[in-house]
Design goal:
This protein has about 500 residues and is mainly alpha-helical. It has a six-stranded mixed β-sheet with strand order 3-2-1-5-8-7, with no helix packed on it. It has a two-stranded parallel sheet with strand order 4-6. α8 runs parallel beside α10 and α12 runs antiparallel to α13. The longest helix is centred in the N-terminal third of the chain and has 29 residues.
């Protein structure tokens, strides 16, 4: 009977996983890439590994995603390849959760069909998908950390390089591993458990050093503004922003947020008592509070960052109820039931609330917009340029970041000059030089001096422009214009401007 039930569940899980792949595959086919995805592709294509390390502090994300993208970008593959990479990463994460996740099948189904697993991480190609996969792998291999400490340490080291917000869960998991190993050494009165852990712990420590090298003097980047508070003011801000994060995730009011917090506390406290180990709950709570702290003091985080909290919660539940987790005692153990019900209710409710909230009319990244809307018109603008503008023509853009999507679709044959710097600019580095404004007279004077034989140039006009004192455009030829609104404000007008 048990074997029959297991086979039935495997069939259901396979159907669920296939549906997940199909659902996100359809979304992937319709997704228009935009500037955040394009900027990574262009950086990976244009820079050497050493140049990339020096550039990182202006981008905000560590190097792992760039290095994963780099070989495909440098080989000249289509820009769409970056979406295939994120889709495959999340396919691995979803498959691991579907087949090995320690929660009941309905909760697995809710999580896989919700924004926790679907669309945001597998379709919108950004580095956050790496956080999801690495946290699930860490939960899966947790029981074997003593036998394979180097593998466990390597996963932690990679998590540090996945994103700056992942430093919190990575560091806390390291502290948990050290605490557990030290405790075992004390109980067994021998150093071997601690020495075994040390074989792996040096890897995330070395990865942290690499992270410091990448973000040394990060205050030079205009993206990060460090703020200071009094102790009481900081606590108040963390509390308030914690509600902001929960409300953004679920769309609920403060009572809903407080109920979710109570569910987590019930799960964490009861599991901590049963495991005689409070660390899983500390890791989950610490990762959440770190995101609130980071948003307050350094840089306001966005929805993709908040989804990472959900994967820390999945890690927490996996640690508590996985192979080395809580063992069901004979009979009805009330504390076990409290922990189990609270954990699964937390994940299931979170998945449902996120699905409902993120498909509202005001959500720019709703499924409706994903299927029928357009993120960017970069692909169409690039198609026009490729078909009508020779690669040796002089092309200027009015905003490096917004025009990067067009360049990524065009490939390495085309070069855009940036109006503000009057230099070839490929990717957005977010330094002050790329926010400089110049007059139309400065632009045309520079072109006549530098390219005296040119009779005209092309201008890719973006919604944000660094070109000041633009004339009435008499004699300008409007070659292309975006015909609809885009979700990320990437609409273009392409002009042929006579000199």
């Amino acid at each position: 009977m048990r074997d029959t039930g297991k086979r039935k569940e495997t069939v259901l899980v396979t159907i669920l996983f296939a549906g997940y792949l199909l659902f996100n595959g359809v979304l992937l086919l319709g997704h228009e890439l935009w500037r955040d995805e394009a900027n990574v592709w262009l950086i990976a294509r244009e820079l050497s590994p050493a140049e990339l390390i020096r550039e990182i502090k202006y981008q905000g994300h560590p190097c792992l995603w760039y290095f994963l993208v780099m070989p495909f970008a440098k080989l000249g593959l289509p820009f769409k390849t970056i979406s295939v990479l994120s889709y495959l990463v999340m396919a691995a994460a979803a498959g691991l959760f579907a087949y090995r996740g320690p929660v009941c099948l309905p909760v697995r189904a809710l999580c896989l069909t919700s924004p926790i697993f679907s669309y945001y991480y597998p379709v919108v190609a950004r580095n956050y998908c790496l956080i999801a996969l690495l946290l699930l792998l860490l939960a899966w291999v947790y029981p074997g950390r003593g036998r394979r400490p180097v593998l466990y340490g390597l996963l932690l080291g990679l998590l540090v390089q996945a994103d700056s917000i992942a430093i919190a869960p990575a560091g806390l998991i390291c502290a948990m591993w050290l605490w557990e190993s030290a405790g075992r050494s004390i109980r067994e009165k021998k150093l071997s458990p601690l020495l075994t852990a040390a074989k792996g712990l040096w890897i995330p420590l070395a990865s942290l050093f690499l992270w410091i090298v990448q973000f040394y003097q990060v205050s030079d980047s205009p993206e990060f503004h460090f703020r200071s508070f009094s102790a009481s003011g900081l606590i108040t801000e963390i509390r308030n922003y914690s509600y902001v994060i929960l409300t953004r995730l679920t769309g609920g009011d403060r009572r809903v947020d407080q109920f979710l917090i109570l569910l987590f506390l019930a799960a964490a406290v009861s599991a901590g008592i049963l495991l005689r180990n409070a660390w899983p709950g500390i890791v989950a709570a610490g990762a959440f509070l770190f995101e609130a702290l980071f948003s307050i003091m350094v840089y306001q985080l966005h929805i993709w960052h908040y989804i990472a909290i959900c994967f820390v919660l999945v890690w927490f539940v996996w640690i508590c109820f996985g192979k080395d987790g809580i063992r069901r005692r004979e009979g009805k153990d009330r504390l076990f039931l409290v922990s189990r019900i609270a954990s699964e209710a937390l994940l299931g409710l979170l998945a449902v609330l996120m699905f409902v909230n993120w498909n509202g009319k005001e959500e720019s990244s709703s499924l409706s917009n994903a299927l029928f809307g357009v993120y960017s018109d970069g692909k169409n603008a690039a198609s026009y340029i490729r078909e009508n503008v020779p690669a040796d023509e002089l092309v200027f853009s009015t905003n490096v970041s917004e025009a990067s999507t067009v360049l990524a679709y065009l490939g390495p044959d085309y070069t855009f000059y940036f109006v503000g710097s009057l230099q070839p600019e490929c990717y957005a580095d977010y330094r002050e030089g790329q926010s400089r404004r110049i007059s139309y007279e400065e632009l045309t004077g520079w072109i006549r001096e530098r390219f005296p034989h040119r009779e005209s140039f092309y201008l890719v006009e973006c919604p944000t422009s660094c070109l000041a004192d633009v004339p009435d455009k008499d004699g300008w030829e409007l070659c292309y214009q975006t015909a609809y609104d885009t979700a990320r404000g990437e609409d273009y007008r392409i002009w042929r401007v006579p000199l």
